[in-house]
Automatic annotation (TrEMBL):
This is Trafficking protein particle complex subunit 6B. It is found in: Golgi apparatus, cis-Golgi network. Belongs to the TRAPP small subunits family. BET3 subfamily. It comes from Stylophora pistillata (Smooth cauliflower coral). Gene3D superfamilies: Trafficking protein particle complex subunit 3.
Length: 117
């Protein structure tokens, strides 16, 4: 299984490198928008595929529980560590060992490259 995870990480790094090295104007915004668009599309297709034989969800909380248990497990081989809402009613999912971020440094060397949310 470690081989599959390594391949996924290499593909992920190459996709990011492809968008970073793509010539064009306003590179920072274009890169972020293209990566977000790609991620949204992939996530949407995965959810549609995983839920095609499931009954409709009754409410928002049921959707979030599905994401935390079934979807996250199918994609990342583990459940979300914590699900809660913030003071504005927005769901906050916490994964203490998220695969795609564990390789990053604890320092500030990547903060300039990370999108400001």
């Amino acid at each position: 299984m470690a081989d599959v995870e390594s391949l996924f990480e290499f593909v992920h790094m190459e996709i990011v490198a492809y968008f970073l090295n793509k010539p064009g104007k306003n590179v920072d915004n274009d890169v972020i928008q293209n990566l977000e668009r790609l991620g949204f599309g992939v996530g949407q297709r995965l959810v549609e595929r995983f839920t095609k034989d499931s009954p409709r969800f009754k409410d928002e909380l049921e959707i979030m529980k599905y994401i935390c248990k079934d979807f996250w497990t199918a994609v990342y081989k583990k459940q979300i560590d914590n699900l809660r809402t913030n003071h504005q009613g927005t769901y906050v999912l916490q994964d203490n060992s998220f695969q795609l971020l564990t390789q990053m440094s604890d320092g500030k060397q990547y903060t300039e490259d990370a999108p400001k949310v």
